[in-house]
Specification:
This protein is mainly α and 259 residues long. Helices cover 53% and strands 2% of the residues. It catalyses: a quinol + 2 Fe(III)-[cytochrome c](out) = a quinone + 2 Fe(II)-[cytochrome c](out) + 2 H(+)(out).
Amino acid sequence: MSSLVARRRHPAAIAIVLLLGLILTGGLYAAFAPKDADAATSSTQTIAAGHKLFLSNCASCHGVNATGTDDAPSLVGVGAAAVDFQVGTGRMPLANPGVQAERGKVQFTGDEVSQLSAYVASLGTGPSIPSSSLTSGGGDIAKGGELFRVNCAMCHNFAGSGGALTRGKFAPNLMDVSGRHIYEAMLTGPQSMPVFNNSNLSPQDKKDIISFLQNVKTESSPGGWSMGNLGPVTEGLFAWTIGIGLLIFIAVWLGKKAA
């Protein structure tokens, strides 16, 4: 009997064991839980600095609260990716109004672009800036080429060399565009470009397309001079101006020689 009494547990023992188990589980989860690489982690100071930059450089068109005016759309809910693309490629601030905002000299440092992106992201939920693991290549080039031809080639040309659109607009050449900005363009749909969200093209699909375009930049042309990969218009112009011009020159030269 005395041994049974000695082995009897304290009534709070089970509760203490459960509490310790919960604390241990929570600590392990916090330490090893997967982090969202695309999540915005901007500090209050970063957002405040971005707000100051916005008021100085963007509010005249987009409004002091970024809700838009007659001259520019609202930025609430566009996300950090849209700002990083537009400002990071020099399209914004817009130099002159026109049918299309063209790529230009970047007006801000990398830190300032990040601050502006953080401020706009704080206004409403929107696409975040993609991680480098999705934009640095390393995907399936063959699949990326197939996806590009199905979704992008009708505007950007089969090799990403760009092309004309309606009413003075154009799809730009993609050969000198970074993988990050290509991904952001697919995610946000700037200008006349449609939005390819993750339901249309998964993050892996976007990575494969970027990998294909990076391969196009470096691959050789086994058929000879590619003439910028601009297609039959360039080839036809070359044939008419150079080829036929050369034939006419030879004919005239032979005629004078015979005379």
